[in-house]
Specification:
heterodimer; A: 293 residues; alpha/beta; Rossmann fold; 2 domains; four-stranded antiparallel sheet; 13 helices; B: 253 residues; mainly alpha; two-stranded antiparallel sheet; 73% helix; binds adenosine-5'-diphosphate; binds magnesium ion; ATP hydrolysis activity (chain A)
């Protein structure tokens, strides 16, 4: 679905490569999380997929990016947009219209979706992100979080094959962020939508994504199934990524050679692990030993 | 400023009128106000706009518009009053500067005209959804979509810029620059340096917006349209009324 062959890019006027030697393959139906410190090149990677690079930002471009089998260099941004939906970092600036429902309808009208279908999609996508009540409101008076929900609704209403989101929940509260992830998961499962999300909240990524990529200084330094990536606890901490507490716990257990299985990704799983260890410990009459540690 | 041009959602008779009818109303009323020099006619037109605002339930919002127009009109009125030396002199406000009956009548006319002619434009924007206006321009008036879009989008940026201006103003204030001043010369001196950051940030904003447009399929092919614009009895009635008002302005002069 998405393929990067040796891609490097430096923005015009900048000596440094914003991303360097990226080789990447993402299959249909994957739910990929991207995390990394600020300036790591996450937004640049996303821009390479939706065609914003090279069609809007100039610079030195090496390698090739294939989206749905086509080189993004050879199609226009508009053509790419038929396959790839985008949500950008700044919700205010990407709003095109003044009323919420018009904002959702904008892309649908551009793609010549019939009127009846547009109404259906507006209702559906507003419901999915939990803002049906804002339908007729002006976009100018919305809060940052509400604007983010609107931009997400506008993108999912188009039902793209691929959806890329660049920190779409930065202004949402934890509950709101969770709801967004649940919605994405549903789209991923129901429509097989391929999803790529840049996000700082590692807990949500580890719970919902099937694959996690960690970026640093323009490179993808870790890439794999969530559990596997979370094993690199030290590296993540070094990058300032706070691992979920259950992961930290597992890490401690592993260091103490008390556990040697997969990393649990939520509290329920962690509880099971701890229970098992404790049961095992009592079985072997080593409870005393454990408490010493 | 932003409050005066922003659409207020509703479902009144006025809201449901064809957007072109509302556009016609705003423009012809404006023209009629310039044709006529009759105080009573202008007052009547002004009152009719209040009726329109009330039936669209935007009276509260419209109050701000009337107030702003009143202040502007009042300044013009003072000017006119002091610089009309002919007619019967009531009294001298300064030595050599008379207040005359003609001056008073003229200046009053000017103020009424100002309020009656401009308020419909603002009310039209409050009572017409942008997307309907866009549809009317592209489908009925056959203006190419990209040009109609530019016009409508210019309006969309007003609240954004006014918020940005506030933010910059606050930033200046926190740095110790005085921004609250009643002196108009000082005000200009305060506002000018803010134009540069505003310009820079707007260029950036417009770039992001352009990206947003392209990634959502702007201008990639035939476009569908969410709302069909109807033409009802109310539209016909509204047009007749507007025409009658225009005719009246020509007749009474
Ligand atoms: N429009 C731009 N022009 C020039 N340099 C840029 C631009 N956008 C990003 N960069 C640079 O590219 C690098 C990667 O940035 P970015 O992809 O935005 O990182 P992230 O999204 O991970 O924070 C940074 O060093 C940044 O300064
Ligand atoms: Mg970024």
């Amino acid at each position: 679905m998405i393929r990067f062959n040796n891609v490097s890019f430096a923005y015009e006027g900048s000596e440094e490569l914003a991303v360097r030697n990226i080789n990447l393959h993402i299959d249909k139906g994957e739910f990929v999380g991207i995390i990394g410190p600020s300036g790591a090149g996450k937004s640049t990677l996303v821009s390479l997929i939706n065609g914003v690079i090279p069609h809007f930002h100039r610079g030195d471009y090496y390698g090739e990016v294939l989206v749905c089998g086509k080189d993004t260099l050879e199609s226009t941004c508009g053509e790419i947009s038929r396959h790839v939906g985008s949500v950008f970092q700044d919700p205010e600036a990407q709003m095109v219209t003044t009323v919420v429902e018009d904002e959702i309808a904008f892309g649908l009208e551009n793609f010549n979706v019939p009127a009846g279908e547009i109404e259906k999609r507006i209702t559906e996508s507003l419901k999915m992100v939990g803002i049906e009540h804002l339908r007729h409101r002006g976009t100018a008076a919305l809060s940052g979080g509400q604007k983010q929900r609107v931009t997400i609704a506008a993108a999912i209403a188009l039902r793209p094959e691929i959806l890329v989101l660049d920190e779409p929940t930065s202004e949402l509260d934890p509950q709101g962020s969770r709801q967004v992830f649940q919605t994405l998961k549903r789209l991923n499962q129901e429509y097989g939508m391929t999803i790529l999300i840049v996000e700082q909240k590692v807990m949500l990524l580890s719970e919902f994504c099937s694959r996690l990529m960690v970026m640093e200084k323009g490179q993808i330094i870790l890439d794999g199934p969530v559990r596997q990536v979370l094993e690199h606890h030290d590296k993540l901490l070094e990058l300032g990524i706070n691992c979920p507490r259950v992961v930290t716990l597992t890490k401690l257990l592993k260091d103490a050679s008390l556990y040697d299985g997969d990393i649990p990704v939520d509290v329920d799983e962690a509880e099971q692990v701890v229970r098992k260890i404790l049961e095992g410990a009592y079985d072997q009459h080593t409870a005393f030993d454990l408490s010493l540690r | 400023m932003k409050q005066m041009l922003e659409y207020v959602h509703g479902d009144s008779v006025i809201h449901r009128l064809n957007p072109l009818v509302k556009l016609l109303w705003a423009f012809l009323t404006c023209i009629a106000c310039f044709i006529s020099s009759n105080h009573l006619f202008l007052l009547g037109v002004l009152l009719s706009t209040v009726v329109v605002a009330a039936s669209g339930s935007v009276l509260a919002r419209a109050k701000g518009v009337y107030k702003a127009l009143f202040i502007l009109g009042f300044l013009l009125m003072l000017f006119q009053l002091l610089f009309t030396p002919y007619g019967r002199v009531y009294f001298y406000i300064l030595p050599g500067v008379p207040v005359t009956d003609q001056g008073l009548s003229f200046s009053l006319l000017l103020m009424l005209r100002m309020m009656a002619a401009l308020s419909p434009l603002s009310l039209m924007l409050m009572l017409t959804p942008m997307n309907e206006l866009l549809t009317a321009m592209t489908h009925t008036l056959r203006i190419p979509y990209r040009y109609a879009f530019v016009v409508v989008t210019a309006l969309r940026f007003i609240p954004t810029f006014s918020r940005e201006m506030d933010q910059i103003m606050q930033a200046q204030r926190s740095r110790g620059h005085e921004t609250d001043t009643r002196n108009p010369f000082k005000k200009v001196k305060v506002i000018l340096p803010m134009c540069i950051p505003l310009l820079i940030s707007s260029v950036r904003r417009i770039e992001t917006m352009a990206i947003s447009l392209e990634t959502r399929g702007f201008n990639t092919g035939p476009r569908s349209c969410r709302k069909k614009l109807g033409f009802t009895r109310f539209d016909a009635l509204a047009i007749i009324i507007v025409m009658a008002v225009l005719l009246l302005s020509i007749i009474i002069g």
